[in-house]
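Fold it.
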Amino acid sequence: MSHPLYIAFIWHQHQPLYKSPGSGVSLSSSQQYRLPWVRLHGTKDYLDLVLLLERYPKLHQTVNLVPSLILQLEDYIAGTAFDPYLTASLTPDEQLTQQQREFIIQHFFDANHHTLIDPHPRYAELYQQRQDKGQAWCLANWELPDYGDLLAWHNLAWIDPLFWDDPEIAAWLKQGRNFTLSDRQRIYSKQREILSRIIPQHRKMQEAGQLEVTTTPYTHPILPLLADTNSGRVAVPNMTLPKQRFQWAEDIPRHLRKAWDLYKDRFGQIPRGLWPSEQSVSPAILPDIINQGYKWICSDEAILGWTLKHLFHRDGAGNVEQPELLYRPYRLQTAEGDLSIVFRDHRLSDLIGFTYGAMPAKKAAADLVGHLQAIAKKQRDSHSEQPWLVTIALDGENCWEFYSQDGKPFLEALYQSLSDEPHLKLVTVSEFLEEFPATATIPGGQLHSGSWVDGSFTTWIGDPAKNRAWDYLTEARKMLASHPEATEENNPEAWEALYAAEGSDWFWWFGAGHSSNQDAIFDRLFREHLFGIYKALNEPIPPYLKQPVEIHAAQEANHTPQGFIHPVIDGKGDEQDWDKAGRIEIGGARGTMHNSSVIQRLWYGVDHLNFYLRLDFKSGAAPGRDLPTELNLLWFYPEKTMVNSPIPLADVPDAAPLNYHFHHLLEVNLLTQSIQFREAGDNHQWHPRFSRAQVAINSCLELAVPWADLQVPPDYPLRLILVLADEGRFSNYLPENALIPIEVP
């Protein structure tokens, strides 16, 4: 019997606890939220995702709603939650303070401008004024209607396009300008109306059988680290650990029970699936999950690879080799009983999360369906008696900001194709497990300890600032333990503050690896939650908690890429497009480029489609006058056996890395913006090849080189050097004495 290819989409909906503890102890009092993202993502990302799905009844999916997100949504629905953005939005224009005006100019463009600002002419006009003339100019020249319109548009732009046919919303979008306080009050009412539909819609679709709703430990803690911070050394044996070992496994069943109870209350049934925060697992956490009654969990393919001691490779098209190992559920066997686990396809999940937003919607949907059809063909060719389950699991909110119309055209194209394709069947995880229980087993003690990030916990522990935060948490936890009289029943404030401080998000933002405009606010919130523990116990707050965990200085001048990027190649160097790119300062460095410093910095980054490069020039610099006319990109493949050739230029110095031999060469003529792509051949020759690379030079140079040009498989290391030349004669190179390291996603 041949099975269709079963596919389980799991969308993870999560926001950190932005509520400042101690503000509003009852629902009747207002509660101060430090940031607006629950309210804004709530109007843009949670309801539309399932409403769109409802139009395609054959397609079943799983949505994970984190308890701390549900509680915050309920505060906004009740009208008791206020954040600084909302307070400003509901302030009469003439009563805005100087401080509020500065805050509005600085923060009311916090959005992807390509997708959320540019489509709205008035919003785009205000954004362009701030970009071109600066914040000080806006502060000096803007009049009350400018502030009024910006306050309105910041809220309107986050309302999902699915709701634009609502007569009131349509009227605001058409109005465009001259928004009054009354308009903004009505926009806020509309936000609350959308938020109020989120949980009922999920419950309704779960009861109809099209949706499975799962939960997460109460405040999204990394459970293996609560059990023992030493578990960080399973994946990274030489990890520097916090000074104090955090070992409070007794908090794990508390988080699991609170999530269970909240779910039962909101959805009228018990949960079956658990999304462990950040897909973090370890043998130590399994008994508590089983004892609470959860039936299945999900994690990442990296965890399965470590567990089976099998490295998952992909073919040239990016599809998994030995797919039968990944595309099946497993049964974790423990003394307490068994627990099913599914492992997500990391690459397919990342394509939706980080790459398809940069592609035309229909092309992106066709690409994903093409991958799934290729897997279905492999399944048929294998004549497997066991059905395959492809798990695609990812963040269900942040990626849509990079998609046109918040992903609506992409999801419509995808869902239509999946509805029409007879060999592909979308299921909830529980549906699949009920029909096809896991037959492959893994002893619970063999399960690897790690997360979706590289199969390790380095995102949350091991860095000096992260470790300091763990030490602060350990001290606070010991203080609570020294008060056995403070129970959850008679001192809920102390315990709620502890649960909040145990959440994963604070550790994510501390130290190296991740940064945002709100780092200092996350630092403050973490310490406020710790304050809450001491205050509830009537204990003095340690002086160190009154200082930031780390100094939130500007990013280092040089740094490696922080995530995928998708820049528009127009030669304008949009800062938002390149904010996660790697950066190398050239102009300020001593050495070869120092004298002229015409090229001031180099930016580089990747997504699943392209390698990206940007060069910033000194103001007014022009190729042919201040700068050589030819830029050569040369790719070196370390430890790979292939035909290579030396740099085909005159006067190249005989010194590393210029005397290396390279495999690919892309020459950009900086005057004509034309390109020539070549590949190394025998006898030190270079042969022309076709290229789809894009280049644009305006205020800077921007370049996109498709991975398809280089014909390299995923997870492949390569190195790059840039060489400047004039009429075929070597002039200079960068970066000095180094190669740029690149990893193909």
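The longest strand covers residues 717-726.
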